[in-house]
Amino acid sequence: MDVFLRPASAAQPPRILRFAVAAGSLALALGLSLLFRPIIAPVPFILFFAAIAIIAAYSGLVLSIVSALLSVALSNYFLISADGTFSLDRGDLARGAVFVFVASLISVISDARRRAAVQSYADAERFAVTLASIGDAVIATDANGKVTFLNAIAEELTGWPRRDAAGRNIEEVFRIINAQTRAPAENPVHQVLRDGTIAGLPSNTILLGRDGTEHPIDDSSAPIRDRKGQLIGVILVFRNIAAQLSAEGELRTAHDQLAVILGNITDGVVAALPNGELAYANEAAAEITGYPSAQALLESTAAERRARFQLQGESGEALDPGELPGRRALRGTDHAAQIVRHRDPISGRERWVRVQARPVRDAREQVMMSIIILNDISEERLAEQERAASLAREQSARAEAEAAKSRATFLSEAGRILASSLDYSTTLSAVTKLTVPRLADWCGVHVLNERQEIQL
Question: Could you list the residue ranges forming a coiled coil in this record (predicted)?
Answer without folding.
Answer: 374-402
